[in-house]
Write a structure and sequence with these properties.
This protein is of the alpha+beta class and 131 residues long. 31% of the residues lie in helices and 21% in strands. It contains four helices and two strands. It has a two-stranded antiparallel sheet with strand order 1-2. The protein is elongated, with a radius of gyration of 19 Å. About 5% of the residues have low confidence.
């Protein structure tokens, strides 16, 4: 999912008729990369899931030829020298189904469904179980 923020997630949960909505956001920025054991070609030709484009395909779609060349050279150097910076953002949302009020308000849009699985941060237990 792209082009949304934490407030959108909370609004969508409320619009779906959920209550007792709780959202946690974890943002981490640290030196290094998880890619040190991966070849640069594996990075560019891999995909986060079977329905998503590869990194190489995404770069080709989003950047001009000159931008692609500069970006790939920069990323290749960063991975090779270990100067990469790892950035991650993970959001956990929990909520309860409203008792007796399971209908969505007419003004609330239906939230889009993303067929891709939610990516969990390695080593984190994930969100608390919903009641």
């Amino acid at each position: 999912m792209m082009d949304f923020d934490d407030r959108d997630l909370v609004r969508l949960a409320e619009g779906a008729g959920l209550e007792r909505v709780h959202l946690e956001c974890h943002i981490d920025i640290q030196p290094g990369s998880l890619l040190h054991a991966v070849s640069i070609d594996a990075l560019f030709d891999g995909s986060p899931n079977p329905l998503a484009p590869t990194v190489r395909e995404s770069i080709a779609q989003a950047l001009t030829a000159g931008e692609q060349e500069r970006f790939i050279a920069h990323l290749t150097r960063a991975v090779a020298t270990g100067s990469a910076i790892r950035r991650s953002a993970v959001v956990y949302l929990t909520a309860e189904k409203a008792e007796g009020r399971g209908r969505r308000p007419p003004s609330a849009p239906t939230p889009p469904r993303d067929p891709r699985p939610v990516q969990q941060k390695h080593g984190h237990p994930g969100p608390p179980k919903s009641r």
